[in-house]
Amino acid sequence: MSTAAHSPVTGPNTRPHRTQQQRREHTRNLLLDATIDCLVELGYARTSINEICKRAGVSRGAQQHHFTTKAELMAAAVEHLVTKLRAQVLESIPKDASQPERIEATIDLLWEAYSGKLSAAALELWVAARTDQELRAAMLPVDRALGRSTLELYRSAAPDSAPAGQTEKLFWLTVNLTRGLALDAEIGGDEQRRRQLLDEWKRIVSDVYGG
């Protein structure tokens, strides 16, 4: 009688063996996701490493293996969330999208990046960083790196003939608009008004680029 169906290697319930690197990445992602959830639900002051580890199902020893300080973990969590949002929006852009569609999708990316969970988490961290030098030092390079990478994405959506300086100005105007709208959302501003302002900004940018 064949025993192939009962083999621990080939049986239907067998899970693929994960490499050490895959296990490390999985643990790291659990910590980063738990950090964002804590910041959004509890705020920075009430977010402790113990609570993060508890939610992630990770020991303190494992956490310290990945992030030596709380500030380092906080900054990495923001970068992690932005990377996920960026990937989600990029996947939603049709490959055959027209120029105006790409511009609109890129503005939507920035809105997604500066609203929702990211807005709440980043706001908590930047307010805390005003008086926490270690947190500020950890956040600054992350913020700058994310700004550069998102600017490159914005440039890729602009026409080839667009002056570099013009694209950069429009990018920073978009960043500051979306940050302001995100803050408006945090304090209970009108959702319909925010959507109208964002749609109007898309129209302005498309007009600038001759869309």
Overview of the molecule:
- The protein has a domain at 70-208: Tetracycline Repressor, domain 2.
- With 211 residues, it is mainly alpha-helical.
- Helix 4 runs antiparallel to helix 5.
- The chain has helices spanning 20-42, 49-56, 60-66, 70-92, 99-113, 116-129, 133-157, 164-186, 191-208.
- The protein has nine helices and no strands.
- The longest helix is centred in the C-terminal third of the chain and has 25 residues, at 133-157.
- 74% of the residues lie in helices and 0% in strands.
Query: What can be said about the biggest beta sheet?
Result: none
The fraction of residues in strands falls at: under 5%
Order of helices and strands: HHHHHHHHH
| End-to-end gap | 70 Å
Task: Please write out the topology.
Layout: H1 20-42, H2 49-56, H3 60-66, H4 70-92, H5 99-113, H6 116-129, H7 133-157, H8 164-186, H9 191-208
Helix pairs in contact: 1-2, 1-4, 1-6, 4-5, 4-6, 4-7, 5-7, 5-9, 6-7, 6-8, 8-9
Notable traits:
211 residues; Tetracycline Repressor, domain 2
In short:
The protein has helices at residues 20-42, 49-56, 60-66, 70-92, 99-113, 116-129, 133-157, 164-186, 191-208. The protein is mostly helical.
